[in-house]
Batch of 2 targets.
Target 1
Amino acid sequence: MNKKILAELLTHSQNDMTRITAEYIIQTFGITIDKTCTTLEEYTNAIDIACMNRYFSAYWEADMKKWKYSGLQLIDEVNNLRPRAVLDVGCGYNEFKGKIKNLIGIDPYNVHADWKLSTLDYKTDKKYDVILCLGSINFGSRDKITAEVAKCVTLLADGGTMFFRVNPGLPHPKPESQWIEFYAWNVPFIIEIAEQFGLKILDIRDDSNQRKYFVYRKIQS
Ligand SMILES: C[S@@+](CC[C@H](N)C(=O)[O-])C[C@H]1O[C@@H](n2cnc3c(N)ncnc32)[C@H](O)[C@@H]1O
């Protein structure tokens, strides 16, 4: 759950749910929610999704050229692996489409995705040789991040490779990103995830803009 939003709702409501009005929500978060909520948890999740949707569908801008390791360089790196299927999780504007072979992009908020849905909502029996998780498994709690990585591990073929770019919890400059909770990835967590899911760390580097770039390989069972 988004702790920033929950903290604001707890402070504002003072244990009185009638204080969470549509007017308060629009004034505080700049969004409206369609869903009828009865608990603070439901309000938090509905507001979180609406804030994410607003920012990533209308305000966030891509710049693939700015990355030292996790941008356009990946085109050759991934194609050289000769993958039969590549999944771009949280693909944004789907900029690798047509450049990396056999790629499909999923994203719940960007209309350029092949499938407009979240990582956890993507259901398939297909296995991918390569999965890209570039700045997209980075929102919300540690449990949510771990569940999203677990989902990617199930989608990855044995011996498959996952390329990551992660944010160490730094906010984006645009005010429309104010309520987004950026998970603070760090190297010990990257190692913990590898141990938990049977992944080998092939590479780990400091990318531009204080991001970390790293590569996991799923160890063959
Ligand atoms: C910082 S952008 C990075 C986009 C692209 N991968 C890139 O490198 O330019 C983060 C992306 O993650 C997407 N995203 C957010 N939550 C997601 C989720 N639960 N599942 C999949 N994608 C998500 C956003 O819509 C956004 O396009």
Note: Helices lie at 3-13, 22-29, 40-59, 74-79, 142-155, 187-197.
Target 2
Amino acid sequence: MQSSIATKQNTFADDVLRGLSATPKFLSSKYFYDDEGSRLFQEIMKLPEYYLTRAEFEIFSTRTKEIFAAFTEKSKSFDLIELGAGDGTKTAVLIDYFLKQTADFSYLPIDISQEAIDFLTGKFKNEFPHLSMNAKTGDYFRILETLKTESKRAKIILFLGSNIGNFSKAQAQDFFRQLRGVMNENDLLFVGFDLQKDPRVILQAYDDAQGVTAAFNLNLLTRINRELGANFNTNDFSHYAVYRPVECAARSFLISRRAQTVSVEALNKSFEFAAWEPIFMEISQKYNQEMIGDLALASGFLATQNFFDERKFFVDSLWKVSL
Ligand SMILES: C[S@@+](CC[C@H](N)C(=O)[O-])C[C@H]1O[C@@H](n2cnc3c(N)ncnc32)[C@H](O)[C@@H]1O
């Protein structure tokens, strides 16, 4: 299983080799977002079961003024840097308000998916013709290192949509420590955390009735077929999700429905699957307020303000660097 963020330098092929050779087998969820994966994720965000996007959208829509006041308390001019920006639907609410306040800022979205970046920049250029925008496609771990020197103004780093939930607690701490390393005294971090709630509500978000989440997971096998010359038959795998309340995490798996051998041309290698053997695909860690405060402290930050939706399903937590 993935143990360290240090894997960032690996290529898709290296990561697939490592994951399918491991016991238990795993694949990294950062590879979900090829063109089809990004399209399927946009569908997921509209599903009735996927409360996360609506809850965070509610926070952005109802608390815009306070968020802006908190962002501009120390520095009136800033770079708004978004890690894993996706389609930017929620961020658009903030940007629209910031522009109306004639705020002095630039927007720097970063995403590993070219499709996501193309969609976002097309939409924002159209919606916000006066927005100063500098989008980057790539792994945010790599791009981060360049930010310290590239961004001359105060940085406000957005990490929304429970992206952080895709890291284990140890990986999350490691990630925030790295971020802390490229941040200065007046920089801020704004992180979206999905909160603990009725386990049944959480589980449904990762196991929707229409099977879009299943298709989203299976699409990674199709991507391996296309990009690495593998011969996965997606009908021979089924999606399975669980929520473990003690660990406070949902986990998604693809289960091999029969004993089978899959070959991957680019790796010059075959992989054996036993009947009902799982591939671990994704963790979705859930938090409570205490866990968030502890995580901030352990990684060199102070959680200064929390913005909740009305049902307390989700929180956007504002962190400043602790000196
Ligand atoms: C769960 S979506 C969230 C999108 C958006 N932040 C939102 O809240 O709707 C995750 C996004 O992060 C991107 N992503 C995942 N891992 C990444 C990485 N290592 N580097 C850059 N982008 C990444 C994906 O391409 C995808 O667009």
Note: The chain has eleven helices and 14 strands.
